UniProtKB/TrEMBL annotation, chain A:
Sequence ranges of Polar residues compositional bias: 1-12
Basic and acidic residues bias: start-end ranges: 13-34
Protein name: Prokaryotic ubiquitin-like protein Pup
Pfam families, per database record: Pup
Source taxon at top rank: Bacteria
Pathway in which this enzyme or protein is active: Protein degradation; proteasomal Pup-dependent pathway
Family: Belongs to the prokaryotic ubiquitin-like protein family.
Chain positions covered by the region annotation Disordered: 1-35
GO biological process: modification-dependent protein catabolic process; proteasomal protein catabolic process; protein pupylation
GO terms for MF: proteasome binding; protein tag activity
Phylogenetic lineage: Bacteria, Bacillati, Actinomycetota, Actinomycetes, Bifidobacteriales
TrEMBL record, chain B:
A Gene Ontology BP annotation from the UniProt entry: modification-dependent protein catabolic process
Entry-linked PANTHER family: PUP DEAMIDASE/DEPUPYLASE, PUP--PROTEIN LIGASE
MF annotations from Gene Ontology: ATP binding; ligase activity
Pfam families named in the record: Pup_ligase
Taxonomy, superkingdom: Bacteria
Protein name listed in UniProt: Pup--protein ligase
Keywords, sorted A to Z: Ligase
Signal peptide: none
Length: 63, 496
């Protein structure tokens, strides 16, 4: 029905605009800072028992 | 297992087929994600099977089985090797498939949290459940992320092998999830495990495209292209781009088959797909030599590269989208953005500037942080020191741990990764099926059956109320069917 098609088109355009805006926002912000804050977070977890963490992840293959 | 028919010999399919469904290039998309599991913080190792059983206790209580369908139209089950698996409902766009896949992550985290609480009561408060959205465990066992595309039946398996596989082998330049190995960093999780191009097996040998003939639709019109060569992506943008670019390539192939013309992809048919995918995976420059059949009349093969092959597909996609600019929305929403990002990815790799892709390409994000981590060790810690192998491998796994991981989550928190879908949209996809495929009707059935506490079962095409008093069945062979019919309403009334 024409009305439904129009409504779907409006929704699609709104989602597209939303998507573009979200990508611009995220893309800009992602280039501002360096990786130090991420490394700080990661180093804390890597200081835990890495050997145990890795060796415990063993299971049969899937698919 | 039924064998595929050679579609070229099917006389019943004469005439145009691109408008066989609701739109000229309309397609159904779906993603099946297998998760890895482990437990740390316990005195003794917890077997994966025990953790998986604990995770699926609520599923068994609800459905008396570890294999069920949800009211958002998805399938949730425990697969071979104790891998929790989530198969999204049928969707009509790459973005919707991404939303549904993220809904799967959300549901899996809920099950893992509950299992962790139970394990903490048994093993102490340090117990942690890890749920890995990746494709290889610590012992090198592989599990999959399978993409499903509804494909017009006239596209033969040989067309897929010649024209699609070169794209699938080289798209890891932007879709690879990255892997830390003892012999160096690789772009792809899966490359080392794939040998054949197309085959019907998944566990004995590992083909790139599985040919099991289960279209879950009218087999006269469609086949279900089951792509098993891809990595599980954490980056939303990578998942979206993986599906969107593959869709555009499939459109080009379908159109050429429909018109009886050749695609520009013929010269790039791979001589040895297994060798090619491993070469691409080990090469960050995109220039590693790949043997292709070539276009020479003499029948001599020639060298190409991942970048050259991807450029050929990108140019064909740009031309295709331009030619269909008047009906672009029918081809793909946001097609312009897809082509732009695709081009940027290839150019960045061409320029040796893969670091600029770290905001959406998983392997680039991982490798950039690994390099920064090594730099920090060698400059801030003891001079000349480096992270241990176990620390690098833990980092690799942590990136994919959706339950207790810190790497990807930290990158998100610090806006280092582009997001397309927010938490509100994910919760919506957990609670609601896509409204423009038959998943909508499946969701209504499951909702009604659960509300009435009925015995029921279903699969992708059948809905069954199994009670003695109100036994009723309904079949939906058309995956594009989303509007209710008087017959469907009668079926719902009969079970309600």
């Amino acid at each position: 029905m024409p009305q439904e098609q129009q409504s779907k088109a409006q929704q699609t355009h709104a989602e597209e605009a939303d998507l573009q805006s979200r990508q611009r926002e995220n893309g800009n912000e992602s280039h501002i800072d360096e990786l130090d804050s991420v490394l700080d977070d990661i180093e804390t977890s890597l200081s835990e028992n890495a050997e145990e963490y890795v060796s415990r992840f063993v299971q049969k293959g899937g698919e | 297992m039924p064998q595929l028919r050679d579609s070229h010999t099917n006389d019943a399919l004469s005439g145009s087929f691109l408008d066989a469904s609701n739109g000229s290039f309309d397609r159904i998309f779906g993603i099946e994600t297998e998760y890895g599991i482990s437990v740390t913080g316990t005195e003794r190792p917890c077997p994966a099977a025990e953790v998986a059983r604990t995770m699926f206790q609520p599923v068994v209580s609800r459905s008396r089985s570890t294999n069920t369908y949800l009211h958002n139209g998805a399938r949730l089950y425990l697969d071979v090797g104790s891998h929790p698996e989530y198969a999204t409902a049928e969707t009509r766009s790459p973005l919707d498939a991404l939303k549904q896949d993220l809904a799967g992550e959300h549901i899996m985290i809920g099950l893992a949290q509950r299992a962790q609480e139970q394990l903490q009561r048994q093993h102490g408060p340090q117990a942690r459940v890890h749920l890995f959205k990746n494709n290889v465990d610590a012992s090198g066992q592989s599990f999959g992320c399978h993409e499903n595309y509804l494909l017009r039946r006239q596209v033969s398996l040989d067309d897929v092998r010649r024209l699609l596989v070169p794209f699938l082998v080289t798209r890891q330049l932007f879709s690879g999830a990255g892997k830390v190995t003892r012999s160096g960093f690789e772009l792809s999780q899966r490359a080392d495990y794939l040998d054949e191009a197309v085959s019907s097996a998944t566990t004995r040998s590992r083909p790139m495209v599985n040919t099991r003939d289960e279209p879950h639709a009218n087999p006269e019109l469609y086949r279900r292209l089951h792509v098993i060569v891809g990595d599980s992506n954490r980056s939303q943008t990578a998942t979206w781009m993986k599906l969107a670019t593959t869709h555009l390539v499939l459109c080009i192939i379908e159109e050429a088959v429909e018109r009886g013309t050749l695609t520009p992809f013929e010269p790039y048919a791979l001589i040895d797909p297994g060798k090619a995918i491993r070469a691409v995976s080990k090469d960050m420059s995109g220039h590693a030599a790949i043997d292709v059949v070539g276009s020479g009349d003499g029948g001599d093969s020639m060298h190409s590269s991942a970048l050259s092959i991807q450029h050929a597909y990108l140019e064909a996609a740009q031309d295709f989208v331009t030619r269909h600019s008047n009906d672009k929305d029918m081809v793909l929403d946001n097609a312009g953005q897809v082509l732009e990002l695709w081009g940027e990815a290839l150019q960045s790799i061409e320029d040796g500037n893969w670091q600029s892709l770290s905001s959406w390409v998983d392997w680039a994000a991982k490798l950039r942080i690994i390099n920064a981590l090594k730099h920090r060790y060698s400059t801030l810690h003891a001079p000349g020191s480096a992270p241990s192998w176990a620390q690098l491998k833990m980092f690799d796994f942590e990136y994919h741990d959706i339950m207790n991981g810190h790497v990807f989550e930290s990158m998100q928190a610090h806006h280092r990764i582009r997001s397309l879908i927010d938490a509100r949209m994910i919760v919506d996809a957990v609670n609601n099926p896509p409204m423009n495929t038959r998943a909508h009707l499946r969701g209504r059935f499951i909702h009604a059956a659960l509300a009435k506490d009925l015995s029921w079962s279903c699969d992708w095409t059948h809905l069954v109320a199994t009670g003695e008093e109100n036994h009723a069945e309904f079949e939906i062979m058309d995956p594009f069917m989303c509007e209710s019919t008087p017959q469907f309403e009668k079926f719902i009334d009969a079970i309600s």
